[in-house]
Amino acid sequence: MKHQTTDAHTLAAAYALGALDDAERKDFDAHLRTCEACRQEAAEFQATTARLAAAVSQTPPTAAKAQVMAAIDGVRQLPPRIPAPSQAPLIGGVLRRRAVPLALAAGVAAAVLGGVAVWQTQNGQDLRQQARQAQQQLAAVNSVLANPDARTVHGKAANGAMTTVVSSDQQDMAVFTAANLPAPGAGKTYQLWLDHDGTMRPAGLIDRDGTVILTGSPADAGAVGLTLEPTGGSPQPTTPPLLLMALPS
User: 136 in a domain, yes or no?
Assistant: First the structure.
């Protein structure tokens, strides 16, 4: 996969994640009015972000609100942060992407997990570990979606599932999203594969709608595959592929 020069068409992921500044968002909004492909891509990224949030969200216990309200009087208010003057983000009328800081991923994860932050410490090591894992997954997904070289391809599996793969050469990572994925059935799971010149290498498991980071490097892979396998996965595909989708180049 070749690295492509960043232009307005590559900003859909950053737009969906709220990673553009005011001037960039204004210019991209104008671009969306004339570009059907970017409108569709931005909408799909926003839907993916919503599914990620739903996948890790948890309802806090009834006592959480009372505990927070009781603690408010004892928490010191932080002073307001005054932003430094920023430079104009446009050069020669062409949108210029600023580097997305690592804080973006942490910010998105914090927003998703904020509802459980008050009571995590009261619910044992298991919940804390689950929260850390969810935060790490969100950070990894966001690092791919918000990268300036993120490329996207869409497909439809034989069982009707709608799929999306977003890959980044700079991150050497790819994200797989499935929607309308039928239940795999008892003793079965869906397994992802990376096709390296005809050799299918395991790339992770997914058993319901959602988003996962593909395991392994997509740099030299030509396609992503999806098969139905026994629970726990297989070293090689044992069933015909439900999907074999070329990676974006």
Answer: yes
Answer yes or no: do 157 and 133 share one domain: no
Confidence of residue 123 (pLDDT cuts 50, 70, 90): low
pLDDT of residue 68: 67
∠ CA 11-103-23, rounded to 5°:
40
- Which residue is it, tokens 């003793």? 187
- pLDDT tens digits for range 25-82: 888 888 888 888 788 877 777 766 666 655 555 566 666 667 666 666 666 656 655 6
Last residue of a domain, one of 129, 145, 161: 145
Of residues 122 and 187, the one with the higher pLDDT is 187
Please count the structural domains in the chain. Answer: 2
- Predicted TM-score of the model (pTM): 0.53
Residue-range definition of the domain harbouring residue 215: 151-246
Q: Are 158 and 243 in contact (CB under 8 A)?
A: yes
